[in-house]
Amino acid sequence: MELDSATETKTFIHQVFGGLFRSRITCLNCNRVSDTFEPFTDIPVDVERTDNINNALVDFVAPEQLHGESAYCCSKCQQMVTATKECNIYRSSNILTIMLKRFSAIFGQKIGKYVEYPEYLDMEPYMSDNNIGPQRYSLYAVLIHSGDNVYAGHYYCYIKSSDGRWYFMDDCLVTESDIKTVLRQHAYILFYAKSNEEETTKGGGQMRLNTVIPDQASTEPNVMPQDNATIHHCTYAVNLSLSPQMTEDSHSDTVSLSGVTSLQDCEESKTR
């Protein structure tokens, strides 16, 4: 299927974080199908009625019926008709960003409950092509909001480095963590990196993959570093680099985390 140039977003941000939604409306009177495509850089999921990310994704792609005041104007029937509408993923992203809708639209109050999320995620069930094959991702960062509403609070995160270690980061405070802690967090935004399929095994009840960006570890709300933890007071810059194979037409692009470098080192290199 040919996509127009406006739909094919070619910026660096979209090459790393971007994908395509497909919205499909089916007229229940004549069965005419209408598809539209929309670029995305994150997937917002409703967590008010669920406590599991997989269930939230199922709800996201679930079809809805258009009828009554929201009836669909079918160009073939030339009238308002009852139709179904569903939105799913036409093209997956290299870095999958899932935003949990924790704030109410009216007053901005926070939904503070714990929502379970996995270390490894397969997005195949949420794709528009059911025969596309596994779309496996590995968790590599978790962003947490500390506060009662959208108007105030504090953000901190857990992130996985290129050597597979997890780190807790709160402003200039950096300390080593682990996956068990990461998976206990009241997450606000989850970041998953697309995984290679060169080596897929199962052990200990968990899927082990060769990931483009290493897997990440656990978090829990307002977790502060332990007394015996190593603390680094430093600011870090993360360098993302696209592989040479990445092109604007590629469907199997890869992104790698080339390393974590202190900003101080960056500044020193400029003055040499």
How is the secondary structure organized here?
Elements: H1 12-17, E1 19-27, E2 33-40, E3 43-46, H2 53-61, E4 64-66, E5 72-74, E6 79-81, E7 83-91, E8 95-101, E9 120-122, E10 136-149, E11 152-160, E12 166-170, E13 173-177, H3 179-182, E14 187-203, E15 206-211, E16 231-233, E17 236-242, E18 255-262, H4 263-271
Parallel strand pairs: 3-8
Antiparallel strand pairs: 1-2, 1-7, 4-7, 5-6, 8-14, 9-10, 10-11, 10-14, 11-12, 12-13, 13-16, 14-15, 17-18
How confident overall, as mean pLDDT?
Answer: 77
Strand content: over 45%
Q: Roughly how many Å apart are the termini? A: 51 Å
Helix content: 10-25%
Sequence stretches where pLDDT stays below 50 over 5 or more residues: 198-272
| Rg (CA only) | 21 Å
What would you call the structural class? Answer: mainly beta
The main pleated sheet reads as: 10 strands, mixed
How many H/I helices? 4
Q: What does the overall shape look like?
A: globular
Strand/helix succession = HEEEHEEEEEEEEEEHEEEEEH
- Based on DSSP secondary structure assignment, what is the total number of beta strands? 18
